[in-house]
Amino acid sequence: MNNAARVWTILAILKWSENFLREKGVAAAKHDAEYLLAFVLDCQRLDLYLRFDQPLTSSERAAYKKLLLRRANREPLQYITGEAWFMSEKFKVSLHTLIPRCDTEILAETVLRYLDQAELVIDIGAGSGILAVTFAKRGKKVLALDISAEALAVARENAAAQQVADKIEFINADLLTGVDIPPTRGVFLVSNPPYISPAEYATLEPEVRDHEPRLALLAQDDGLEFYQKILAQSNTVPNLKGIFFEVGHQQAGAVAKLLQERLQNPAQIVRDLGGKERVVYTLL
User: Fold this and answer.
1) Is residue 178 part of a domain?
2) pLDDT in tens, 38-55
3) pLDDT digits over 208-258, tens only?
4) How open is the CA angle 47-20-208, to the nearest 5 degrees?
5) Looking at the domain assignment, is residue 3 inside a domain?
6) Could you tell me if 152 and 216 are in contact, meaning their C-beta atoms sit under 8 angstroms apart?
7) What pLDDT does residue 249 have?
8) Does position 4 have pLDDT exceeding 60, yes or no?
9) Phi/psi at 129 (nearest 5 deg)?
10) Pick from 73, 100, 124: which residue ends a domain?
11) Domain of 49, in residue numbers
């Protein structure tokens, strides 16, 4: 990219960038090179294919190089651009929030199947607000709880952008501690809590281990710490009608057992399209 005599067309720079990122260990090198260039040029990735012969200006090359180097250092694509997609909607993310994943879409879809049974949804560990916004857009009142004030600031921005800020109350809290829950005809507790054990945390990809907030990832007791804490506090919730958890792909059995022991009610397990157990829930 430093060869000034070379004409850097979109096609040329993408080929170079793909090889560069692959050498740095980036798995989706082609996708990420295209995504970042489209971000710089303010267009869709597919638009690049129609403009392969277009030369880049020096300012465009400089802007792209800056982002490309960040990705080569294994900074997640979503933090570089400040945006991520969830349930076909664009959300703002920051270093204080987890990056939305398909696993959490399984959680959202599971809750949505039963959403008419609850008047209020309590999102424990709201992060960027993806779940809170999703449920608020379906007309539900939501309490969005998070121990990180910085994460809640991002969630507020996302709620405002999606025009549902009036349906969500944002509360800086440690799980349910000190939260005043208004009387309703039914409450769902929904959470994608930290569930990565210390042993597993050490094996994570650099994008996750070195960049995503440790506070939102790491849990003691083989990753079960926060399921135990939430269930211990669940008896403070009036008119509780259901609890829904996202879980690690090897935790479903243990979390289902915790649910059943605490609530004396059968727990259900939902698998993702790859067959991995991703959600555990019970209806009361």
Assistant:
1) yes
2) 999 999 999 999 999 999
3) 999 999 999 999 999 999 999 999 999 999 999 999 999 998 999 999 999
4) 90
5) no
6) no
7) 86
8) no
9) 90, 15
10) 73
11) 10-73
Instruction: Give me 208's structure tokens.
Output: 């996750």
Closest CA to 249 of 207, 173, 197: 197
Residue-averaged pLDDT of the chain: 95
Of 271, 261, 265, residue with least CA distance to 240:
265
Residue with tokens 């270093």: 95
Find the Cα–Cα–Cα–Cα dihedral 89, 217, 82, 22, rounded to 10°: -100
Final residue of a domain: which of 73, 93, 113? 73
100 and 31 within one domain: no
Location of structure tokens 């960040």: 70
Quick one: tokens of 114? 């039963």
* Burial of 75 from C-beta contacts in 10 A (0-12 / 13-18 / 19+): middle
The 8 Å CB, 24+ separation contacts for 21-30 are 21/68, 21/71, 21/72, 24/72, 24/73, 24/74, 25/74, 25/206, 26/71, 26/72, 26/74
